[in-house]
Structure formats: C-alpha cells, structure tokens
Write a structure and sequence with these properties.
This protein is 40% helix and 16% strand. It has 253 residues and is α/β, with parallel strands linked by helices. The chain has a 7-stranded parallel beta sheet with strand order 1-2-3-4-5-6-7. The protein starts with a helix and ends in a 6-residue tail after the last helix.
C-alpha cells in the first residue's frame, strides 16, 4: 500500500504493544522468522525501506544491552537504518549513560540512534535532547524532531536557528491544535493527530528551518477516523498529499 500510494519508506515495531483498531491480527517480527523473510521479500519487490525501528525505550532497572541486543540483531537483518528511542527513566543521569551504551551497541550493527523528546517524558524538550546527544558524543546519535512535540514544549521556528543541523536526524510531521483539546497527551499523540494543514502549528515555518535532506515520517495516527470507517489507504493517501504540499522541492529524503 505504501508503495502504491507513493511513499518511499515505512517504520515498524517488532511487536505491537496494543490492539490494532484496523482489526489486524497480532504479529511478532521477533519470533516469526517466516514473517521476517516475507517482509524482506516485499521490501525488495517494492523498493520500500524501513526508515526507523520503533518501540525502543530506556526503562528503570534494566540495562539496554540486555533489553535490546536481540531487537537490534533483528533490525539489522531487516536493514533498518535507525532506531527511535524514548526514555521512561526519570533519572536523567542514568538515561544519558544508557543512551551512550545503546548508541554504542546500535552502532556495532551500523544502526543510527535517534532520541525522541516527548513533553511528558524525562527527555521532554529539544534542549534536554541536545544535552543527551552531547553526552553520547557519537555522530550516529542524533535527534528525532517531531513537530507536535516541539510545538507543545513551547518551541518556535526561530528556536531551530540555534540547533546544529547535524544534531537532527529525522523529522516526524503532523499537525495539531496549538493548545491540547485532549487532556491525556499520550492519547492525543498516539491516537489522534491531524494531517499537515488541518491544525494550527506553524509547519511551513518550522520546515523552512530544518535540514532538507532528511527522511520525513508522516506521523498521523487517526483512531477516530478508523473507527468511523475511513480506510487506512484513504487516510494514508490524504496525509501524503497534505505533507507534500508543505515540503516543496527542498526536501529530498
């Protein structure tokens, strides 16, 4: 479907943590070798690549090397270029040290590490993400720049002027109201976002400040539309069309 609509990449978790509202059966790329083989065949047939491996988290009391070495082996098998990491550990010092260990481990598989800042997580804004990147000290550890997270932490387009472009490794685009209308931030972020142009974020101004050679992920989950019967293909097509109107010719990723 992604190839048919004109997308160049997809992202994936190895195993979903929640039930699909689309009614898809549960899957596990961890335990199902045949599924991994089928996925590799489809990627080869379509020319689509997996731009990011999702579902990697730093949690209290568990070492990332123990938690994620097998996942990284599988992601390497699937030729996944980068992982997207969040931290749930409130101890920032430990978070930074674990990120350094994870980046080193991922680098041994030639996989880049992306740090995603989320307003309600310990790495809650772009400044803390930059501190984490500096602590890790590796060129293959950079930032996942999510437009909704950036704006909801008070970020303004002009603030990006002070960020080293090399510190940003990937863009996730979505739109949203300027102020939250869903009290639970994760509920909004994971289940209800808007296609570019449907909300109130200054996306054109933000994109004008960001590097133009990055992969741009369309991060627009829309559970309410799915439950209302709007097909996944229709939602994907609309979001891609809306995103392309914002990107223009400067973005090549």
């Amino acid at each position: 479907m992604a190839a048919r609509l004109g997308y160049r990449h997809v992202t994936t978790v190895l195993e979903p943590s929640r039930k699909s509202v689309e009614g898809h059966p549960h899957f596990s790329l961890r335990s199902d070798a045949a599924l991994r083989s089928d996925l590799l065949s489809v990627l080869d047939d379509t020319g689509i690549s997996i731009a990011s491996g999702e579902g990697i988290a730093i949690v209290p009391g568990r070492d990332v090397r123990e938690a994620h070495v097998r996942d990284l082996e599988i992601m390497s098998e699937l030729a996944i270029a980068r992982i997207n990491v969040v931290s749930l550990d409130p101890d920032l010092s430990r978070t930074f040290d674990q990120l350094a260990l994870l980046a080193e481990l991922a680098g041994s598989f030639d996989i880049e590490t992306l740090i995603e800042f989320v307003p309600i997580f310990p790495i809650r804004n772009i400044d803390i993400a930059l501190q984490a990147i500096e602590h890790v000290g590796r060129s293959d550890c950079r930032m996942m720049f999510d437009t909704m997270h950036f704006c909801r932490t008070g970020g303004r387009p002009e603030d990006i002027d002070h960020v080293d472009p090399n510190a940003i490794g990937y863009i996730q685009i979505s739109d949203a109201p300027r102020e939250a209308i869903i009290p639970d931030y994760m509920e909004e972020a994971v289940c209800e976002r808007m296609a570019p142009g449907e909300g109130e974020l200054p996306l054109a101004e933000i994109l004008a400040e960001l590097p133009g050679n990055l992969v741009v992920g369309v991060e627009v989950p829309q559970r309410s539309a799915a439950l209302a019967g709007v097909s996944l293909e229709a939602r994907m097509a609309r979001c891609l069309s809306a995103t392309r109107r914002f990107l223009g010719q400067d973005f090549t990723g």
